[in-house]
Design a protein that fits this description.
With 422 residues, this protein is an alpha+beta fold. It has helices at residues 15-26, 30-37, 44-50, 86-98, 124-133, 135-143, 147-151, 186-204, 230-233, 235-251, 253-273, 278-289, 325-328, 330-339, 344-367, 372-386, 392-404, 409-421, and strands spanning 62-70, 73-80, 103-107, 111-119, 155-166, 169-179, 207-214, 221-228, 299-303, 309-316. The longest helix has 24 residues, at 344-367. The protein binds (R)-mevalonate (MEV).
Length: 422
Amino acid sequence: MNGSSEIRGFYKLSVEERMNLVRELTGLSDEEAGVISKTGGLPVDVADRMVENVIGGITIPMGIATNFRINGKDYLVPMALEEPSVVAAASNAAKMARSKGGFTVTNTGPVMIGQIQVVGAPNPQQAVRVLERRKQEVLKAANEQDPVLVSLGGGAKDMTAKVVKSTRGPMVVAELLVNTGDAMGANAVNTMAEAVAPLIEEQTGGEVFLRIISNLADRRLVRARATFDKKAMGGDEAVDGVLCAYAFADADAHRCATHNKGIMNGVIAVAIACGQDTRALEAGAHSYASRSGSYKPLTTWERNSEGDLVGTLEMPMAVGLVGGAARTHPAAKAAVKILGVKTAIELAEVMGAVGLAQNFAALRALATEGIQAGHMKLHARSMAITAGAEGKLVDAIAAKMIEEKKIRFDRAKEILAELRKS
Ligand code: MEV
């Protein structure tokens, strides 16, 4: 860039003024600035209120995964992401589960944890006992912060306390258990945690530092299960392949990270489409996967007595429909309407089913033909389009390049010229 990044009052400028300044400093062309300035379905004034220092937006594709049947109900699932093959894979997997009844998903309710860290309590064990004995006072103070949530049946329901050994000595940690209803809950929980801090200091004789939600949302789990038809998925050998892939992930952290990444391909794509906090979901997923002390798969795979493949998934799913981008982003609101979910729990259950479907699709592809075959088809099509092909020519050129195993721009151009001549 051309100048200093220390820009006083950048936040006070309008969106347009910020963009002009960025252009001056970085040499963005009209065209480049234009693509960022076009905020698509998100009005620029809404974007400007969502985050700071806004200059525009970025659009990513939203596809619809088909064939999903979850708890006896059909869904069209919006998925927003930049990676090819994921939407197609989810749709295919859902088809193979559908003939066996689709996905069954349960949940533990929308309970989030708010942590209050107390340092310097004169007697930590005694402080824990006092917190447990006097927790009703704390719960009352917490619930006074959110009468609406309480009137809807949510609110702070319980509190636990523990001593955490740390490099700076023992700390007392109080944990509020809050039913956040249809909200993801970070705001509600953080407000409560901050409000009860003085009371907790009084009860423990220590000093409160952190007052914040935990993203290890292990009181807000979804459990999804589905049976995948042996014949449809490629027979006994394919079932064996998935079981071997699962055993590999269970035994090896390097493989397990990729195994769980495949699950998150599905979970996060629905989360983005529906305006969810994807970082919270990732943090929850991977910390939950590590809860035993080793990093483990979020799914399990087994064979049933008919020889079909049965998968289960268990993971935290902290999502909400009230508050956040699910309420402010028009595209997210429309995506939620397509999905047709009425509660945060229903959204969480759908996301669990999609995560399981995505994991199945990845393992099956990896254990059989490999994932590059599917990727290559898409890659060849986009190469043909870049070379100038339209309509039927796109598929014809892609097929020829795949057959020749030469998926290259120059070859796409040559084939296009040949086909146009003939
Ligand atoms: C790619 O985005 C996801 C996979 O790597 C997942 C896996 O390996 O299980 C295919």
